[in-house]
Design a protein that fits this description.
The protein is of the alpha/beta class and about 240 residues long. The chain has eight helices and eleven strands. The termini are far apart.
Length: about 240
């Protein structure tokens, strides 16, 4: 199976071309450029490196969320645009799981965490061992205080991965806990992890059409949250 995977859920963006579990080409940029400007050129680059075309693809995979609302939308839109003309099957995966997939060689409990602003994080726990990744909870948006409660409840030590890892290491709310950072090359969101997660999803029959591919936000955008709050205040 030849699949193209994209991630644009945070500051960095990446694209990976994988065939039968082997990475043929991968492009990663953490230059703070707009994903709408960089993502499609990266797609073209990895295809050219492997001398493949969009017509050759069996699957298009993307981080469907959670993450930056704009970034998630850009990734979904790119995949839809590539998939529609040739009716290529699509797969949207959790970026939190995708990050855990890149740590499957470890023996640890992974705390995948992304900065959701306002002392909140997008987070999920995974057990990784012997190349296997086991989800321990669903993706959620929680406060750092709530995260501390869950870490204490789980007990033991944790490997932090994601763009919220450094935030958690420095957060007073999490002081005194047994936390360590994932290795730098594997700490951030990467399309290779998306490809690995999508490969598992395909085996479970979790593919959709381009039309059915949807983002997963976990919470409303800030503008909508503020509007909802004002409306609730007006009716109280």
């Amino acid at each position: 199976m030849l699949l193209l995977a994209l991630d644009s859920t945070a500051v960095a963006a990446s694209v990976c071309l994988m065939e039968d579990g082997v990475i043929l080409a991968e492009s990663y940029q953490n230059t703070k450029q707009t994903h709408s400007q960089t993502l499609m050129p990266m797609v073209q680059f990895v295809l050219q490196c492997a001398r493949r075309r969009v017509d050759d693809l069996d699957l298009l995979a993307v981080s469907a969320g959670p993450g930056s609302f704009t970034g998630v939308r850009i990734g979904i839109s790119c995949v839809k645009g590539l998939a529609f003309p040739k009716n290529i099957p699509c797969c949207g995966v959790s970026v939190l799981q995708a990050m855990a997939e890149n740590l499957a060689h470890m023996d640890a409990v992974v705390c995948a965490v992304m900065d959701a602003r306002c002392r909140q994080v997008y987070q999920a726990f995974f057990r990784v061992k012997n190349g296997e990744v086991t989800r321990l909870c669903e993706d959620r948006a929680i406060t750092l205080t709530q995260l501390r409660e869950d870490l204490e409840k789980q007990g033991g030590s944790f490997v932090l991965v994601g763009d919220g890892a450094n935030l958690c290491m420095q957060a007073p709310e999490l002081a005194g806990l047994s936390l360590q950072l994932a290795p730098e090359p594997l700490r951030m969101q990467r399309a290779s992890g998306v490809a690995l997660a999508a490969t598992k999803a395909v085996k479970e029959g979790k593919t959709v059409s381009a039309e059915e591919l949807l983002p997963v936000y976990l919470r409303l955008p800030q503008a909508q949250r503020e509007l909802k709050k004002r409306m609730e205040g007006a009716t109280s």
